[in-house]
Amino acid sequence: MGDRSQLCSVWLGSETGILKGVSLSRKQAFNFCNTSHLSRDQEVRALCWGDPAETELLVGSVDGTVKTFSTEKGAFTETRCCGDPAEGCFTGLAVLSGSALVTCGECGTLRVWKEDSSDPVIELDAGKNVCRMRQSPVHQHKVATGGKENGLKIWDLERPEEPVFTAKNLRDDWLDLRRPHWVRDMAFIPDSDKVVTCTGYHQVHVFDPSSPQKRPVLEAEYSEYPLTALSLPAAGNTVVVGNTHGQIALLDLRKGVVRGCLKGLAGGVRALQCHPSQPVVASCGLDRFLRIHSLEDRKLQHRVYLKSRLNCVLLASRDLEDGGGDVQGEGATQEVKEEEEEDEVWDSMEQVEDNRQKRKTAEEEEPQKKKGKRKKGQD
């Protein structure tokens, strides 16, 4: 299994608890799990790299455990209990220098765990109904949290007594009614102190902690459906957002306008990640497909069917392999082929008008004919 795992450049977590790896160069997908103990309690909710060399992968499950997967050995090497299922699922995982682990659950409890300790060394309350926790890629000791009726907060884990930034709610609408807020995902904008968020009310906000204004410095909207995930491309100045109807778009962070849309999805988006050096974005969600889109021409470069509904995606920092076309996982070739054949059959069918419409038109014409006959008889 070690040979297979070293080939994989894309990793995904599924609802069934299976860690999936995809090799774009070999056009193959692999499952990594202990099938004898597989259950819904092991549903994967969070993924992150355990070390800078990307030899370890941390997998956060619904049952509150964090498993360590070795990409060199192709097997799970350690399991740690870092939460209680009653506290909700993991909304984020991160690693600090010195092998410390940062976890956050839906209940809002944010903890820091040392490698040699079973008790957290730091524990703080980020508020209820947390939907996401993200770590700053530049300052690892800074994390951001947010959720439903729980505004954006930025925490410094070196001074965890209180957040270093707490966003204010949006201004009241034109009827002087309070506007609800629901942070679904966020990201730290590189080369600045700004943070971009997306909401369950199809909004994109940019916050600047260095300014005295604690409300968004930029507000934009996309489509009419809840946004679920976002990611920042390496080029900067844009953000990629996805929603519950499988729509993905690039928004300009300077003007708040849509720069383009990515097509091909058929289900709600659950995770997005842009490659750190290449102009591509990986997406996954309810339609069980991993897709790799180019951010330059917005074309679909790779597609893989993985049989399970997917919750999270993680890209390796090395360059993705060249090559395009559909990528099919082990045992998935037949399903994808049948799906494409079915689409061709439906496209080749002739369109038939609804019988109810024909019946209506016939019923409307009959009284007119009867009136015409009566007029002739009267004459």
From TrEMBL:
GO cellular component: nucleolus; preribosome, large subunit precursor
Pfam families: WD40 (PF00400)
Biased composition (Acidic residues): 337-352
Compartments, record wording: Nucleus, Nucleolus
GO biological process: ribosomal large subunit biogenesis; RNA metabolic process
Residue ranges of the region described as Disordered: 323-379
Domain of life of the organism encoding this protein: Eukaryota
Protein name (record): WD repeat-containing protein 74
Native source organism of the sequence: Mastacembelus armatus
